[in-house]
Amino acid sequence: MMGKNGLMTFSSLQDGIDKMASNLKRNYIDKGLTTIEQIQKKYAPVGASNDPNNLNSNWINGVSKYYKMLS
Q: How far apart (Å, rounded) are the C-alpha atoms in residues 44 and 51?
């Protein structure tokens, strides 16, 4: 995860997972963004100026793949 001062580090894997889950809840779920497609539009929008290689167009497929593996 990126923080105010760059890439964040955590003392354990569990701490990192907890922080990411908290971030997901606060910035997406609590705002009504509850599907992978809805989250993508905010987190990794296609055509974003900071995505010159159009990698965001692969985001939904990539996240969906891992979601299915963990479900």
A: 9
Q: Write out 19-59 in H/E/C secondary structure.
A: HHHHHHHHHCHHHCCCCHHHHHHHHCCCCCCCCCCCHHHHH
Q: Please name the residue that has the structure tokens 């606060």.
A: 26
Q: What is the identity of the amino acid at 53?
A: N
CA separation for the pair 10, 8 (Å, rounded):
7
For the stretch 16-60, pLDDT in tens is 999 999 999 999 999 999 999 999 999 999 999 999 999 999 999
pTM: 0.81
Residues in the chain, overall count? 71
